[in-house]
Specification:
single chain; mainly alpha; two-stranded antiparallel sheet; 4 helices; flat
Length: 112
């Protein structure tokens, strides 16, 4: 009973890692090729190969936990470091180029 519960949790975590890697792969594939060097990141081909291998490992070798964890680290690096840099270079960030303190109705002035 306990082992089957653990297997169900592990299967859900494996599925979540696979979905996360597929989403990262789609983001990497849809970004412009010239945005990668402009953001001072590795090439688009590099990230497509890395994330493609991660998806393949998550799909076919779901029992090899250390490979899945390495792939999860690569996916997280792409999502929290590379993707925001690509969005900033590509102009896909904030609307109208406002600052980070701008709200939906204009800039926040801190109650002044």
């Amino acid at each position: 009973m306990l082992i089957s519960g653990f297997n169900n949790i592990f299967a859900l975590l494996s599925l979540a890692m696979l979905v996360f890697a597929v989403v990262a792969l789609v983001f990497a594939a849809t970004a412009r090729k010239d945005a990668y060097p402009a953001a001072d990141k590795k090439t688009k081909s590099f990230w497509l190969i890395i994330l493609g291998v991660v998806v393949a490992v998550d799909f076919f070798l779901s029992g090899v936990l250390f490979l899945q964890i390495a792939g999860l680290v690569a996916t997280i690096v792409f999502m929290v470091d590379v993707r925001p840099a690509l969005r900033q270079v590509s102009g896909g960030g904030r609307r109208s180029g406002g600052s980070s303190s701008d709200g939906p109705y204009g800039p926040y002035n801190g109650g002044r």
